Amino acid sequence: MIKISFPTDYNERSCYLVAINASLMPYVAGALRWFEKRGSWLTDSDYEQGYAAFAALEACLMKCCLDDLIESNDRLYRMLDTAIYGTAYTVVTSDPLLVEPLVQPVHTLDIADPLSIIGRMDDMSQLLQNALNGTETPNYSDTPGIRELLANIIAAIEAGESNDEDMLAQLVQIAGLLA
Predict the structure, then answer these.
(1) Which of 120, 177, 168 minimizes the C-alpha distance to 147?
(2) Domain of 142, in residue numbers
(3) Is residue 11 assigned to a domain?
């Protein structure tokens, strides 16, 4: 087995740009793995330096596709964050791509835009609480609610004080709340 020594003139800052067909990348990376074996090097010092250099080269070969994958995930996250919570993102520069605000590791349940999915769900919840129970919410303050109007009609019928015009007006109001 041939053993090699680490080059004495190695400089990690001077590099060449090598064009490798994308379909050959797995083979090139696999061929470089030979240099990660301890038995490939003359000395332990050569092995340590060689291993670090070739591991960095393999990482460099994979970095391009990893950056694309990470940016793809970030785009998907920003799309969902905008739709669900209404967070507004802006592109500061396109080369290199810089989008603000940065993707955070944790998201709060704050509603950034009332037209987002969560914003609309909150609005519908407030509307339902107000229309059904007459509960005053930040967006709606119409009272009485359906339950109170129905209770008034039932109480008037039981008390024998039912006035057809008043009952009809309350039923029209209930129909309006249900629509």
Answers:
(1) 177
(2) 117-178
(3) no
Low-confidence ranges of the chain (pLDDT < 70): 1, 17, 64-65, 162, 177, 179
**Count of the separate structural domains present in the chain:** 1
- Two tokens, residue 74: 């970030």
Rounded (10°) angle between helices 164-178 and 117-133: 170
CB atoms within 10 A of CB 41: 20
Please indicate, yes or no, if residue 16 is contained in any of the structural domains: no
What sign for the dihedral angle of Cα 127, 131, 133, 139? positive
The structure's pTM equals 0.52
Q: Give pLDDT, residue 1.
A: 64
DSSP state of 41: B
pLDDT in tens, 13-61: 777 767 778 788 788 878 888 888 888 888 988 889 888 888 888 777 7
104 secondary structure, DSSP code: P
Residue 45 domain-assigned? no
What per-residue confidence (pLDDT) applies to 64?
Answer: 66
Question: Is there a domain that residue 23 lies in?
Answer: no
Res 92: pLDDT: 93
Query: What share of residues in the chain are helix, strand, coil (percent, to 5)?
Result: 60, 5, 35
- Residue 150 in tokens: 């129905």
Q: For residues 61 and 28, is the Cβ–Cβ distance under 8 A?
A: yes
d(CA 22, CA 64): 11
